Amino acid sequence: MDKLAGLGKLSRKRLADVLRNSSGCISVSLVLDTLSVSREQARLYLSSWAKNGWLRRVRRGLYFPVDIAAETPDGGVLDPWVVASQIFSPCYIGGWSAAKHWDFTEQIFESTIVFTSRRLNQKEQAIAGLTFLIKKSASSKMFGLKSVWKDQIKVQVSDPHKTIIDMFDDPSIGGGIRSVIDIFQKYLSSSECDLNILIQYAEKMNNKAIFKRLGFVLSKVKRDETHGITQCLSHLSQGNSQLDPASKGKRLIKKWRLWIPEGLEEGFP
C-alpha cells in the first residue's frame, strides 16, 4: 500500500521537495517556484497537505511543517521565535523575551517581543495561538545581535548589552521601569556585564533619554561605578525626560533631567 496519512507517493515526493527548499515556513510562492505549478495548484497542494496533517497553517498562505513526533494532533506548540523570524524578517527577538533567554529574569511573559524594520500596522499580532508585540526599529538600530538556533532555524536575538539598552530606550518592552531595573541588576551581577559596551551601544541609539535613565538607575543600584555614571552625565541632552513614559513622573531629578514616578525611589537598596 502506497499511502501514508492520506498522501500518495507522488504527493509525498512533492512535499519532500518543498520542505527541502524551505527555510522553516512554507508559502504559496515557495510551492509555486519549487514545483513549477500555477498559484491555484500551489494553494491546492498546501490545503491538501494541511488537511492530512503534514502542515500547520499559521495564517493565510503561510504554513509550518508539523512535528510528526508530537503527541498532539496539531503537531505540537510552534516556537514563537521561529515563527517571528519567518513572518517579521528582517527582525530580532528583544525586550523581556531576550532578557529571559539571557537569564536576566525569571518572569513568565505570554507575548514575544519582536523588533523589525518593516512597517506594520498592528503592534500586537496573534498567530497560531502565539502573541507577538511588534516594535518598529530603524535599520541603523538593528545591531548588537546574536544568532541562535531554534528547530534548525537561525534566529536573531539582541545580545545581553543591546537587550538592556533597548529597555532603557523603551521601558515598556521590559515590562515597565521597575521590571527593567530588576533585569538590569541581574545583568550587572552577571558575567556578561560590560558598561563600556553599554555606553557604546547607547551612543548609537540616538536617544539621549537612554543616558538619563541608565545613569540615574546606575547611580542608585551601583554607586561605585563612577566612570559609567560620569559617562552618562556627559551625554545628557537639554530638556527633561520621563524615567518611564508609561508612568508620568511626579518629581524632577534636576541632576539627571528626569521625571521620577511616585514611590519608585523607595524601592532602591
Describe this structure in words.
The chain is α+β, with helices and mostly antiparallel strands and 269 residues long. The chain has two domains: 9-65, Arc Repressor Mutant, subunit A, CATH 1.10.10.10; 80-267, no CATH class. It has helices at 9-21, 28-35, 39-51, 80-87, 95-101, 160-169, 177-188, 195-204, 209-221, 226-233, and strands at residues 26-27, 55-59, 62-65, 91-93, 111-116, 124-127, 130-136, 145-150, 153-158, 241-242, 251-253, 258-260. The strands form four sheets. A four-stranded mixed β-sheet has the order 4-5-7-6. Strand 8 and strand 9 form a beta hairpin. The longest helix has 13 residues, at 9-21. Mean pLDDT is 89; it is low at 69-73.
Over all CA atoms, what is the radius of gyration?
A: 23 Å
The helix count comes to: 10
Task: Give me the strand/helix succession.
Answer: HEHHEEHEHEEEEEHHHHHEEE
Shape: elongated
In the sheet with the most strands, the strands line up as 4-5-7-6
Structural class: alpha+beta
The amount of beta strand, in percent, is 15-25%
Beta strands, count:
12
Biggest pleated sheet: 4 strands, mixed
- Identify low-pLDDT runs: 69-73
Overall mean pLDDT:
89
Distance between the termini: 71 Å
